[in-house]
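User: My collaborator sent over this chain with a note saying "see what the structure looks like." That's all I know about it. Can you take a look?
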Amino acid sequence: MGAETKPSVAAATRKTLAMLRAAGEERVAAQAGRYFKPHERVCFFGVRTARVEEIEKEIFATVRPVWGLPQAVQFCDRLIRSRFLEAKGVGIILLARFHDAYDERLLDAAYAWLDAGFCSNWATTDVLSTRVLARLLQRHPGLVDRLQEWTRSDCMWVRRAAAVSLTPLARCGAHLDAAYRVAAALRGDAEDLMHKAVGWL
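Assistant: Without extra context I'll predict from the sequence alone. Here is the result:
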């Protein structure tokens, strides 16, 4: 799948899933579930984190010469719909490489992924928040006001993303007023995973 063949999103998705499946280890998959709560819908190939990152780098190397942001978003959209945590991660990490091209429409795509339950665990929500959404807000600060509306969502993962996305920015002293308002809005949230997100922020 070299650059000269102009790899399609579908072909890159198939190759990614095949590589993850081949790299899976039953013992790793069995251990991974211990880090998640029973209500988090997570399945695992059982691929070690270092190998997941290697696979993403290999896929990115093949698509970098010919893909732009639209293809990266499509690739992430396909993989984030997978039931396997590692597939979601590869899609998000590859999308993060295109942060210099982020446009404001990406906020709607991220919201749709969260609200539809494609990120229904803390790990996927947090990697989307810190690697994609935080950089999107950095590039388009005007979106911060829209993110605050997420605190009223019925979906816990949308609410968690509102807090976690601002954490890397607040750490650098940016958008502190917005961070305070989001933390205040979510302080009384009944979900344990929300307590941790607000505490982090």
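A starting point for your reply to your collaborator: The chain has eleven helices and no strands.
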